[in-house]
Specification:
Layout (H helix, E strand, L loop, with lengths): L1 H20 L12 H11 L4 H23 L7 H21 L8 H26 L11 H9 L8 H25 L4 H4 L11 H4 L9
Helix pairs in contact: 2-3, 2-4, 2-5, 2-7, 3-4, 4-5, 5-6, 5-7
Amino acid sequence: MVGVKRKLILPAIFILMFAVSRIPGLMPLNFSVAYAFAFCAGVFFRGPMGWWLPLGVMLATDIGLNCYYSAHGVAVWDAANLDNLAFNYVAYAILVFLGRRFKPQASFLGLLGGGILGAILFYFITNTASWLFNPFHNPEYTKNLAGWLIALTKGTGGYPSTWEFFRNTLLSGALFTALFGALGKLTAESPAEKNAGAREPEAEDESEAAPEPEEAKT
């Protein structure tokens, strides 16, 4: 029963933390639990659960957020924005795949490095998608090398530079990967629990183990 509870507790904590973090205005721009959630789900949840849990929860919260922003007059359902959002899911899937290259028993520093690498990949993939699809029609995002570099470094006018977003991406990726990694290790089954219930080899019948001595010949 203890092992079953632990298997349920960790996904519940992951989902709760991610869902709360997506409340509009709660986190700074690009300071997100999503990078660590996708990466650590790939690490700690084996089998199909490592894929459907993070991607399914993200899809549900994205639909909710799109409904919220649409109600406030933001055009989030147009084709360009949906294409841009689809690239986010490509990035999330890559983070899950990266996480599955790690074992839950990996060192804490190894997991932290993997989470930071995942955050960097997410930043490059999603900012490239923003430049490519340009859902908000930013004039700076010209379809050439200069426009792509602007999308990766400066960003569009009226907003903080994308380097500041990159900083938030790295900080949140490291922070929440450390937190999820610590939770994953704390709730992992101990060797004693893994071996609990294993049947020990039955002792051989004494009569079989020690043959009776032959009778003395007369």
